Amino acid sequence: MSCAAVVSPTSAGTVSFDTWAAERAERFEAAAQRMLPLAAAVPQRLHEAMRYAVLDGGKRVRPLLVFAGGEVTGAEDEALDRAALAVEYVHAYSLAHDDMPCMDNDVLRRGKPTVHVAFDEATAMLAGDALQAEAFKVLAEGTLPAAQAASLMRELAQASGTTGMCGGQAIDLAAVGNMNMTFADLERMHRMKTGALLKASVLMGALSGQAPLLTECTREALARYGDAIGLAFQVVDDILDVESTSADLGKTAGKDAAHGKPTYVSVLGMEAAKAWSLRLRAQALEALNGLGARATRLRELADFMVCRSH
Amino acid sequence: MSCAAVVSPTSAGTVSFDTWAAERAERFEAAAQRMLPLAAAVPQRLHEAMRYAVLDGGKRVRPLLVFAGGEVTGAEDEALDRAALAVEYVHAYSLAHDDMPCMDNDVLRRGKPTVHVAFDEATAMLAGDALQAEAFKVLAEGTLPAAQAASLMRELAQASGTTGMCGGQAIDLAAVGNMNMTFADLERMHRMKTGALLKASVLMGALSGQAPLLTECTREALARYGDAIGLAFQVVDDILDVESTSADLGKTAGKDAAHGKPTYVSVLGMEAAKAWSLRLRAQALEALNGLGARATRLRELADFMVCRSH
Questions:
Q1: What is the CATH number of the domain that holds B222?
Q2: CA–CA dist B167, A5 (Å, integer)
Q3: How much is the mean pLDDT over chain B?
Q4: Which tens digits make up the pLDDT trace of B116-147?
Q5: B128: which chain A residues are within 8 Å (Cβ-Cβ)?
Q6: Residue A113: beta bridge partners?
Q7: Chain A positions in Cβ-Cβ contact with residue B154 (cut-off 8 Å)
């Protein structure tokens, strides 16, 4: 992918994207360490599994989208911590459940044994269940005004249930072995399965800030950005699943093909999939046109998500 | 159990408890039929499983507690519908997950095949996950003021996660085979596993009504009622697990003993367990002393929950 051609504008006086992203990821990790149930508290094994599922892993794309979305509306770090934890808890719970034998039966995730391998199936299921509750709890117990807290919880619930992540996952299950899936079907599935939570991350960041800065127009721009980048992320995932090794990915490579799952690569072909990822990135950037320097990190994140190698 | 000794005061002009409960259960069923994702909508199989897990089953104790709690603060029916759906969705998801092979591996529930038997394991897990999200969604999309909606979601999250239902379930898992569990350990486990959501049901009903009627004192009284009745319900469950048949219960009888799980009966003995259930009922009724006729349905529910035969 020719990613170098796009120049990310960086506002004067701010740190580079890499430095910003590293600092935000570190901030997220510290917040998660602090706010997840303690491993020493009863029930210990459940808490250990919840911490194992969340800590020390992944690119933290969703938390970064929350923090970048928060820059658009001048959100406070403490509020963004909670929104970032909430989306990452939901993401982590979905991975713990998806990896179980009755679903994808995967043993490697983020370079570590999956939760049911490191613990056991019952604990993995329960840790996932508890993480979903914890996601809403961390939003409910924050200090934002109730109207904002309620809108964050609404956004998260809509993105993670049957109209979003779980619904997409169910369509994915039904699609196994269906190599005749159309592009439109595939797009719809991914819009729900991964796109909805990525989009919600951006919006929840923005919803955590100053309400007057989140005009209807700004909200729509962020939604369009989230839609495009949410799909682009999945297209790149499908490309990397073919072109990368398990060691690079930190998870089992080539498993979609092995499971008979339709992907962007199997439906479009590799070259067209790469072109589609760049087109979606362009759509994402275009959506931010009116937002000026407040959206710098979101622009940089679009590049980061499309040009990554793992 | 000598339940007939306790007279439930019924306020003049109101219908009998049985009539009230039947009408409320019917109302709940209609709301669930209407508000659950449609079986005809994509992803159909997921929606069918969600509906199967919730509809046409159970005593609806939690919804009844919501409606009875709402009488204390004059809550509107439409708001109570949503609170009732939310707690029952959480209850239904926990049953679908608990019945799976990696947990209790049960095949019969509410007189029907369990969700993973009627569908498959992946769908049962996903339907449970989606029902938990749906529980928060149904609260988030209601018409109550944001402060009330947020407090309902906080209550539900705290009752269902690691500090409540999931945490209790994890302690339960760890307790299998431990027939030396103390009474205090058992009480703590059940306070979390089943008590927290039963107590939350009462409070969420009350929180759905007129805020000025929910004074700190009233809230504390309802919490004490919820604590006591939440435990009493489990004591009676343990008694019925020994004394009833599977046909009466609509689920596999005697399974706790078969699984080597400590119960109130195994820890206290049958007679002491029965005495303890009556003591808890008395505590529940005592907590309502200051609430007058507004708490009539809660008093009747305490009797219903302790004196049931299934």
A1: 1.10.600.10
A2: 51
A3: 92
A4: 999 999 999 999 999 999 999 999 999 999 99
A5: 129
A6: A108
A7: 137, 140-141
pTM recorded for the entire structure: 0.94
pLDDT 10s digits, A39-77: 999 999 999 999 999 998 788 999 999 999 999 999 999
Digit-coded pLDDT (tens) for B206-228: 999 999 999 999 999 999 999 99
Distance, CA of A84 to CA of A67 (rounded, Å):
7
Backbone dihedral region for residue A14 (phi beyond 0: left; psi -120 to 50: alpha; all else: beta): beta
Q: Report how far residue B297's alpha carbon sits from residue A178's, in angstroms, rounded to the nearest whole number.
A: 54
CA dist., res. B42 & res. B47, Å (int): 8
The residue type found at A169 is Q
The number of folded domains in chain A is 1
Q: Is A102's CB within 8 Å of B94's CB?
A: no
Q: Is the peptide bond preceding residue A262 cis, with omega within 30 degrees of 0?
A: no
Nearest by Cα to A135 from A101, A100, A161, A102: A161
pLDDT tens-place string over residues A194-240: 999 999 999 999 999 999 999 999 999 999 999 999 999 999 999 99
Q: How far apart are CA B215 and CA B294, in angstroms?
A: 14
Which residue segment(s) compose the domain that B303 sits in?
13-307
Query: In chain B, which residues have their Cβ closer than 8 Å to the Cβ of A141?
Result: 154
Pairing of strands A112-113, B108-109: unpaired
Coil vs helix vs strand at B119: coil
**Cβ atoms A102, A46 nearer than 8 A:** no
Q: Judge contact between A265 and A242, C-beta under 8 A.
A: yes
Q: Is B10 exposed, middle or buried (0-12, 13-18, 19+ CB in 10 A)?
A: middle
Question: If you count residue pairs, one on A and one on B, with CB atoms under 8 Å apart, how many are there?
Answer: 159
Q: A192 exposed, middle or buried (CB, 10 Å; 0-12, 13-18, 19+)?
A: buried
B253-295: pLDDT as tens digits: 667 777 778 889 989 999 999 999 999 999 999 999 999 999 9
Choose among A50, A103, A166: nearest Cβ to B46: A166
For residue A305, what are the contacts with CB-CB under 8 A and spacing of at least 6?
A61, A229, A232, A233, A236
Which residues from chain B sit within 8 angstroms of residue A207, using beta carbons? none
Inter-chain residue contact A122 with B102, CB threshold 8 Å: yes
Q: Does the residue A12 lie in any domain?
A: no
Asked, for residue B2, whether it belongs to a domain, the answer is no
| Residue B6 domain-assigned (yes or no) | no
Structural domain contains residue B4: no
Q: Which helix (H) or strand (E) holds B202?
A: helix B196-207
Residue B281 CA to residue B230 CA, distance in Å, equals 10
